[in-house]
Structure formats: structure tokens, C-alpha cells
Known about the structure:
Blueprint lengths: L22 H8 L4 H6 L5 H4 L2 H5 L3 H13 L8 H4 L2 E8 L2 E8 L6 E6 L7 H11 L4 H8 L8 H17 L6 H8 L15 H14 L1 H28 L1 H4 L11 H13 L1 E2 L6 E2 L17 E6 L4 E6 L19 H8 L13
Antiparallel strand pairs: 1-2, 3-7, 4-5, 6-7
Amino acid sequence: MAVRRPRTAAKKPREGGGRVLAAAALASLVIAGALGFLWWGAAPRAEQLFLRSTWARLDAPARAALYLRSAAAGRLGDGLQPCAGLLEPAAFARGGTRVRGAMASVDLRGGEMCTLGEGALLTVASVRKQLGESSSGRPRLSQEVASLGDLVQSAADERALLALLLMREDARASSPLMPYLQALLHRAHEHIPSAWDPSSAEGAERRAELERDAGPRTLRAADELRRVISAHYTALVPRALEQLPTLLLDGVVDAEYYSEQRFIEFWLSIRSRSFENNGFGVLVPLACLLNHPPTHEPSNVELQYVAQRNGFVMKATRHIKQGEELTYSYGSNLCKERALLVYGFVQDGMPSCPGF
């Protein structure tokens, strides 16, 4: 199986991600004078950060740098600020290639580092709250936002609805969620096999390569997951488009935007970054930047939800030096087929999963 580098994902009891950098994108990350680091020193106003146009001009490393800088400055809410100042974007060696991740911006003692507060977390409930605040003065829109919970008839509907709502926000010219969508969720699906459209030339080529390199069982597993997601789409999206025409369509996009292929991509992106919360997961911004450690090496960061704080506590498992990579385990027994099918990467030395 070809080695793919870890994507920047949210991890462990979560279901995570990984991302391959093109040489040009890596160069812009490593060269301090590149556009990304010009933006790192900029710090636009919050309203500018909510504009799609602010992010469209930047490459992936520059987006991560801008996101961290803005979060540390408090422009993305209080929930992110305590942790953001402890991280910096960087590139690290992995199996003969380079991966994008995060390093410590200061020396960190072992023990508690910070808390990613409730305001930083993304769930159906948090997005509904944000939509409710922005729909003030629009009775029909407010009514639809208030009825979002009625669409959730099964546990699977929760992630499907979150995917649909994030698709809606991503299509807008401006959204409070735009920084997260553009900096941390953008293209998170691209190396996950179930996201590859069999009807497209590129998708067919990548699927053939997967079958050749990883074997037919891996391809069948990817196809089975794709069928499951398609079933979630069929169960929720037509109902949502019928019940939420103002929210999903009015002044945003037409129904064709909410295609099954785009839904699959968002669903997989969310899955790859979801932390476990006794349901279909919660998205934890900033944690997306931490890579899974190299095979047979322990992670140096742990994250745990603490109900009394309404957030995730980030802890250093040992002393971490400034400039050292911050890593979080996606699972102590992570095997290569699961790593590929869920997160979109495989590391040297990973064992095969049972049954493959």
C-alpha cells in the first residue's frame, strides 16, 4: 500500500483525517517570507475573517497560520484563545515526505496546557444556536432553525444534518464558520477512498490504483462505506430540502448544490475530525492541526472532555520543547486500512487490520 502522510485531523475516540502537501504548498510553509506568514503577522478584523474572499487567496499553510493567529488574538471567540497561542503551524518529516502539523510555540511543562471551551466546539446544537442568533428578525428562517431537531430521527441523522448545515455555511459569501471551514475542514476528504467519485475519470483512476496497491478488500470496504453514506443522504437530505427551503436554498444556492457527491465529501471530512461524544462526534478546532505520531512512537498530547468545564482539556504527557511537533494519537492500535479509510493516510510500519 502506498504511504500517505497524516492529515491534520482531530483524533482518537474521534474519527480523524490526514493531508498530503504538494511541493509548492510546502515551500510556502517553509519559507518565512511566503504569503502565509505575511498573513500570520496581519490579524484581520473578525468580520473580514468571516468572508470567503479572505481565505480564497491563501494556500493551505497560509490558511492554518491565519487561523491560529486570529484565534490567539481572540478574533474567533474565547473558546479557542487559551490554546491557540501555544501552537504554530509547521512541516515535519514522515516516511521520506513532509506533512503539515503543529509545533509548540513555547516550552510546555508536562500536565494541563489549556482548555478548548464550549464556544470552540462544533455540533448540530452549536450550529443551530449560531443560526438562531443570525436569523433574528426573519420569522420564517427562525421557525426553520427552531425545527432542526425534528429532522433527527436516528443517530445517523445527527452527522448527516451537521454535514448539510456545514455545506450551507461553506456556500455563503460570509459565515462565522468560514474560518474553520476554509482553514481546517477544506479538502479534508481528498485522500479518503470513499470520497472518490467512481463516475469521474480521476476517481476511477484513483480507485484502480487503490485496488492494485491495497487489494480488492480495501476497495470493497471503501465502497461499502460510500453506500452507507449514500443511505444517510437519502434518509435526510430530501426531507431537509423540503422542510428548510429558506435556510438551505433562499439566497444561498439551488438544490443541485446539495449533491450526493458533495454530501459524501463533507460527511467524510467531519468523520475524519470528530471526537467521540457518545454519539456521532463533536468537531474540536485546533485539535485538527495535531498529527498522529510516527508508528511505534507515543503521542505527547492528550485531549479529554471535562463536563465541568464544558470543553476539551489539552494535556502534555511530558515536557515539550519549543519547536517540537505536537502529536495526538488516533488510536493505540491504529492499523493501515483503518487509517486510510477513515483518515486518508498510511504510515510506514503500520500493521494490517484483521480481515485485510
